[in-house]
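A common beginner's mistake is to predict each chain separately and then try to dock the pieces by hand. The better habit, illustrated here, is to supply every component at once so that their relative placement is modeled jointly.
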Amino acid sequence: MRVTWFHALRGFVTVRISGEGTERLLGEAAADGIELLHLRRTSRGELECIVTAGDFFRLRPHLKRTGCRIRIARKSGLPFLMAKVRRRKFFAAGMALFFAALYLLSSLVWRVEIEGNERIPDEEIFAAARAEGLRPFQWSFRLPDSAELARRLQGALPGAAWVGVEKRGTLVRIHIVESTEPEPRELLSPRHLVASEDAVVTRIVATRGRPVVKKNQRVRKGDVLISGILGSEGNFVTVPAEGTVRGLVWHEYDIVSPLVRKAKTYTGERRTVWHAVLGRRSLKVSGFGPPPFEKYESVLHQENAAWRGIVLPVGRIRETQLEVRYEERRLTEREAIAVGLMQARADLLRKAGADAVIRAEKILHRRTENGKVYMKVLFEAEQSITEERPLVQLQGE
Amino acid sequence: MRRISRRLRHWTARVLELPQDVVFDLPRLTMIGDRQLHIENHRGVIHFSPDRLSLRLPNGSLEIAGKGLVIRGIWAEEMFVEGVITQVSINGQGA
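With all components supplied together, the output reads:
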């Protein structure tokens, strides 16, 4: 009655039957069990109907008997489609190949990503993954399932507390949670702490090793402060000595401080000159003529045209010419001394370390000559005086 | 003899309340509005055109008039007609 998928599977033809005895043909066909569907008269008096491919051949003898002629108008259904495919072998092969390629390429692992690692280097994780077969261009179906893979990766990566493997299509993402490890201990070789300067000890705290000197004791450069040898003669161990030793150190400075200072000041007068920039060349476009100032400084400010974050090689330079004047300032002797001492103090702190404290300072000698003040100053600074000396010679004994 | 068998069949049909078409080899027509007609127990097509369809029945003929008539399916004893059906008449149907 209706053209169903069953008809489509078996294949059916739309035929046009012409001749006088079409009605008789219908009767005979029906009696023979031939199924005719969608019968209608065309405007030219032919009978159009649909018949299955198998029934079409059974219709033949009836046609002869009733004197009708048959013409195939259209062929539809799977067998005819297959015949068409058979004629176009390469097209069909291409289609099959496309689906095969789509399937194969989508079952490859295209990319492996790593997430969450900070200390463990990527290379190490990639190497571990590669050892388990997880690498780009690997077949997905050759990989064990994600949980198994994660378990094996965790075994291979001792620094990871947890490893997760997530498969998303052709992308495999490895999540790593690193285990928190305690800071590794600093490896120290046995050593003494010795004095770095001639000093008077003000404070000695040995956290490791044996203190040799006492507070208020004078030490020379190179004297042992904290010994790294524990125990008595012939029965000792060597340790890396640790601790803080502070002492008063004398620093002598020869200071020269001039009485005249030159200072640069801006007068406030300014002029703006514009330049056009193209590539690496610039062309002055305004502010011609010699500068109206005797002495000046130029401040350049370049602006390039940009579009969506792309800087174009076209722009402008604003040159601001600022008039300057050099002023000479005369200092009194006291001011010059103060400036000189300040500079010396800064230099001392830089050399002795930030935790140094200046306990006393004394100007030993002072003279003013040629517009300069010459001074000799003694600073007494309390600072760390330790220096490491390795115990190499004792290692073999 | 024929008379006796026919009367017997009449009687059986009445007593057992069997449908008449089963017993007497009559056509059964099922019509849905003016657009579909299902005919069972026909004996072949006499004439078929978009305006007129006439069928042979076991006893006489069936005339269908309409517009744009199409036979949706035809089998040994069944037929399914679609189109605008204006008239259905049965000729020479005697029991």
